[in-house]
Amino acid sequence: MFLFQHTPDSEPGSLSYMMGCISQGLAIAVDVHQDEVDLYLEKAAQKGVKIAYVIDTHVHADHFTGGFELAQRSGGEYCLHQDSPAQCAFSPLANGQVIQAGNVHAQVIYTPGHTDDSISLIVTDKSRCDEPWFVVTGHTLFVGSVGRPDLRGREEEMVDKLYESIHGKLLVLPDYMEILPGAQAGSVCGAGISGKPVSTIGFEKRHNPTLRMSKADFVKTVLGAMLPYPEGMDKIIRFNVNPIKS
Q: Rounded to whole angstroms, what are the CA distances from 128 to 21, 25, 131?
């Protein structure tokens, strides 16, 4: 398996990914920005792979997605959670569903909280073993922090969902599993995010202060650490809901 992690120039706090199987010539791209589409097509050509699936872990509020365009240009499927508010054509993803790109298998885990349509991806490299290797956590769980629950309103309801997603679905994964988040320091989608773009479940359980709190303290802390909304958020969301170009 190959793995490509990238920080776009337009949003240095964000992270996007491509993972794939060179032997079978297939890849999966995740959370690609609008200004990264050409780069991902170039990287796929260099690796000799087809981008078969393009996944957004949720409808983003902090950047314009390149997911739909990349899928159109690569001939791949554009994928979002089945409850996504997107109005463009996409392949709906369900909790537990496994997406296969050769030896790379990505299992969809529904992790609402940052948004109602947030998902994470548990990734296994079948060329190595049958055990999962890492989890792409989108904007649900960050290195040193957690996602913010207030970007669509209903923050008290959403912070409860965030807590349950993190504790009930992510922190129950093996301690050795790596965390590949959707953002790093500089993002406005979470307070106190580390500048280190990778961690493990075990390290975060031990050293991420938010994860060691009771639910009541988690709710109080997360709701008390709200950052300013992303600049141009409403325009970004409108585009990401319907990114079809005229």
A: 12, 17, 9
